[in-house]
Amino acid sequence: TVHNCDVALDFIRGMEESCKACTAVTKARQERMMTNLADLQLDAHREHLEFFRMLYLAIGNLIYRKEKKLESVDRRIQTSHIQLEVCIETFDAAAKKFSSQKKALYHVRAELEEELSMLQEKQQCAVRDFSASEEALLQAGVEFVHPVDEYKEDCLNHRTRMAEYREHLCKVEDNWINLERDEIK
Hints:
Shape: elongated
Largest sheet: none
Number of helices: 3
Distance between the termini: 133 Å
């Protein structure tokens, strides 16, 4: 009986050591899996950053183009309105043409505003969807330029280039005017 107790104690100690060994192996395996999972999640967040960057910049480009087109339509509406007023004052038969043109331009403007609104909503939705990945990347210490900031910088650069281009064209035009004045004299 004492012998049986000793055998039982030895068996229990052996089982305890086996359980500890199995637990250690399982814990090590779980830690490796968690590390691999964290690496995969970080890679997924980096990939999401690149797709978000492409999407945000593409939508931003479309918004820019739609806004410019909207400005162009507004100018055409103004021109059409002026032409309509002139035709009305002079009893010109083309007044109806300008009136229908103005109505068509207002319709185009409404469509552009709707498309612009939809694009802006998509852009805002993309920013909201990216917030989880942004937070994860920042927590992981990954340095990146946020696509919103990148887009704003691109817009500023584009506007600067356009202002420089307009300035250059004005100088060229001034030079032509001066040359024509010299030729007249």
